[in-house]
Design a protein that fits this description.
Length: 298
């Protein structure tokens, strides 16, 4: 049955769409469009349903990405991916955890749509250049060149980080304790010298309009933000995009969340999302899957 095949592969399809688009809402739109196309096909004519669905989702995501890129150019302030709450076991898959991290998703934003699709399908999901060619409408030779160019671009810009773990969560807990009690030196000791803080308010709420870099500057910013919180604000620990995160909940509503990038026991990046459009979907844990890829004939 068409529904059975689509449901079986849905986590894989969602993961591909999300990594190509950086938005869970847009990924869901792509899956809906892809499902409509899939439901119009006679399953008996499809030899490899997963291969067919991956191809359809990739093409729909490419079309969608070309549309939203123009919209993001007019975005107010820094743009961050829509955060997705992930199960702790996502961190056990190092490739998957890194590929959905905030830092990597921002690097993927600097690729053109075809480069992004090729990089994601090849480097994250393990598809061959020949398999990818059918999905992006290029020759195998062209895909090979695109993959090489995209890999070189990404590797030159990627930031090393440690996925969510007990050790990473302990760093976050110490950081939040130091920040909420105003222990400046303890706070500074947990920040890397080149730490960067990025806030995404989308022009809809108060948020820093530019990235903040450097240990002293970030510490000052964090302390200033926490001084504005009220006693009604509750801090919850969670995992988002394979990273340790803190949720700031006020009067039962998620006001903002911060994902922490940690390397060698120090915080190298803080990604704060306050845009309410990106927070309203941040409650449910979304299943991610790389699909246990096996080669298929395009």
């Amino acid at each position: 049955m068409p529904d059975d095949a689509f449901t079986e592969h849905r986590p894989l399809l969602f993961t591909i769409a999300y990594e190509m688009l950086g938005s869970a809402a847009d990924a869901e739109d792509v899956l809906q469009e892809s499902y409509l196309r899939w439901s119009a096909v006679d399953p008996a004519t499809v030899e490899h349903p997963r291969a067919y669905l991956v191809r359809v989702v990739t093409r729909q995501a490419l079309n969608h990405l070309r549309t939203v890129r123009a919209r993001r150019e007019d975005y107010v302030g820094p743009w961050l991916p829509e955060p997705i709450r992930t199960a702790p076991d996502v961190s056990d898959d190092t490739i998957l955890a890194e590929s959905v991290s905030m830092a990597m998703m921002l690097v993927l934003e600097t690729l053109n749509p075809t480069e992004r699709a090729v990089f994601v399908l090849h480097e994250v999901f393990g598809y061959t250049h020949g398999e990818i060619a059918a999905s992006v409408g290029k020759t195998e030779a062209a895909v090979r060149q695109i993959a090489h160019r995209a890999r070189r671009h990404v590797h030159a810009r990627r930031r090393r980080f440690e996925p969510d773990s007990d050790a990473a969560r302990e760093v976050v807990q110490r950081f939040l304790l130091a920040a909420t009690t105003g222990e400046v030196q303890a706070l500074m000791d947990l920040l890397a010298p080149d730490v960067v803080q990025i806030s995404d308010g989308g022009g809809k709420v108060v948020a820093a309009r530019r990235p903040i870099t450097g240990r002293a500057e970030v510490a000052r910013f964090v302390l200033g933000v926490l001084r504005t919180t009220t006693t009604a604000t509750r801090i919850e620990h969670a995992t988002y995009n394979g990273m340790p995160a803190a949720r700031f909940v006020t009067d039962g509503e998620l006001d903002w969340l911060v994902a922490f990038e940690i390397h060698d026991g120090r915080i190298t990046g803080l990604y704060g999302i306050r845009n309410p459009d990106k927070l309203h979907r941040a409650e449910a844990v979304l299943p991610l899957d790389r699909g246990g890829h096996q080669p298929w004939k395009p």
